[in-house]
Amino acid sequence: RYLQTVQRENDDLRAYTCVTEKTALAAAEKVDRKLAAGEPLGPVEGVPMTLKANISTRGIDTDCCSRILSGYRPVYDAAVWQILQQQGAVLLGKSNMDEFAMGSSCETSCYGGARNPHNTGCVAGGSSGGAASAVSAGLAAYGIGSDTGGSIRQPASFCGIVGLKPTYGAVSRYGLIAYASSFDQIGPLANCAEDAAILFDVLSQKDPCDSTCTGARCAAVPALQQSLKGKRVGLAAEYFDGLQPDVQVALEQAQKVYQGLGAELVPLSIPEIKYALPVYYILACAEASSNLGRYDGIRYGIKAEHYTGVNDMIAKTRSAGFGKEVKRRILLGTYVLSAGYYDAYYKKAQMLRRKIRHAFESVFQQCDFLLAPTVPRTAFPFGFTAQDAVETYQTDICTVPVNIVGLPAVSVPCGFDGQGMPVGMQLIGGAGHEDIILNAAHQYE
Ligand code: GLN
Q1: Active site residues
Q2: pTM for the whole thing?
Q3: Could you identify the atom of ligand 1 that is nearest to the CA of residue 403?
Q4: Which H or E run contains 311?
Q5: Residues 224-237: pLDDT tens digits?
Q6: Which of the four pLDDT bands, split at 50, 70 and 90, describes residue 359?
Q7: 377 alpha carbon – ligand 1 mean position (Å)
Q8: How many domains does the chain have?
Q9: What is residue 55's DSSP assignment?
Q10: 332 CA to centre of ligand 1 in angstroms
């Protein structure tokens, strides 16, 4: 049924960049045989799903929606896909994304951006736009995405679904094609908080292949039924600046729901949030410029056909293979790392990163979790992000802080704007406290 829906809807939604029908049917048949034999099934066994196009799958296209990796099929599986395969997951295909996960609308994808099922004139968000579009429209039961500065939560918010960015290090990134390694984290996009909790508990395992991966510090599913009576919901004023009026109204209603559930609202302030955007875009671009150095026409993907020498070959391959946004970030990242500017930009941003981390640490002495908008607005119409890159970067203001400090956050649908487009709220927890935010999300639902 899912494959039929994908066939029917995908031309319209552009959620999938590659459909793995044979793999899906083979996995489903295996589960059928187990069912027929009366064997019990695991929590994700037989459930049809999609992986973002930057998660390595052996023998299956993993091109990050970039021309430079066109036709690239990895020789190994990412850790998350190893776990899911062992547990009997059914892979329907790879989902659309911004090129190398750089973007907020999925429009930098070489396939064109995934469309929003609530209004196909609007983007599904980015960078994991394909997964959000697929889950929202019933083209997959869940998706696995990556979040460097909001790429799971922002598309989840735009498409009216749940998206979880786990604590940095909770889920292995072995086999995730790197964008900005000190920010990247893998997580689920799902229909509800309970599904996200099940997936978090399955995926968060220690992995010796990713030295930053320590696994989960909590179990999310057993915590889902806890009462919110007496819990303190932090409201940091800085997150509520400059919201679209409909988003503000939806967030105010969400606060009332929490009061109704017995929680206490705690107004507070995190002034350091004002540094988050420049810190993120300086450090993420610096790391990207280094990570993307490997695409030289020799090791992976495409290679220029006519060239005069090795430097010319590399230049021609990269000029043809990378899109405009990726080039912009490589140039910006190279600039902030260059000898004359390192202290003024990169080093300063690192110092501010520490300051922001300290600020967030003290916040969780005042509250159990933070409630904030996921994005200051609802989904953009197509073409919006092409007009002004900086204005687009600014819409990431509510999502990037937790990536800077490594904290977990979940986006949960909390209403609609006047045009019927979904609004998302974000619940942010202390390090290792996916249980608290997923419980709060589940109680809200
Ligand atoms: N929109 C942000 C960026 O363009 C975040 C992307 C992401 O999380 N991968 O960098």
Answers
A1: 52, 127, 151
A2: 0.98
A3: 8
A4: helix 310-321
A5: 999 999 999 999 99
A6: very high
A7: 16
A8: 1
A9: B
A10: 15
